[in-house]
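Batch manifest, entry 17 of 40.
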Amino acid sequence: MITILSGSPRKNSNTLRVAKAIQNHIQRLSNEEAAHVIDFNQFDIPSMNAGRVDPNNLTKFQANLFNSCKESDLIFVLTPEYNWFPSAEIIQMVHTMAAPAFKDMWNNKVFATCGTSNGRGGRMPAVQLSYTINKILNVFNCESMVSPKIFESQFTDKALDENGLSLGNTEFMAGLEAFVAFNLKLKNRWRNTEN
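Output type: structure tokens
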């Protein structure tokens, strides 16, 4: 299974467009791969000063997030770029769920990061997330890896419609498809399903 985290709280966001485009491309490549999108528009993880997440009493969103990541071999982590940083929701997820009770969502995985923008942006949050996830894997001694191949989704609303379908920018689509293909191959190698 593959999980795609669409880390924008906005309804019908550019980040969700990219998540759907990744999901569409995975389905075109293989009917055997299930790709599940988690839309952070439903996000309900409280900030650290507002309470804790009880691993034995998760909300519907929290349970969906945890279980989907736990069952996945490959997790795409997408975030909009807000002033050179990942979204507050992605950061809050890391603050809360990078904990021993949630180790199963980090262990035995390949993580691939993507930053989205409606202009020229996306690189910094994707790089920052790769550093952060590597730190989590190190601290919890997870047998996982962060992919070296990131994707910067620039001018997203001019490249993808609300269903993640191409608006005709062949260069954008070639980059997106290369990102997906690389990380599927990396996942297969990591999981010893390809030589």
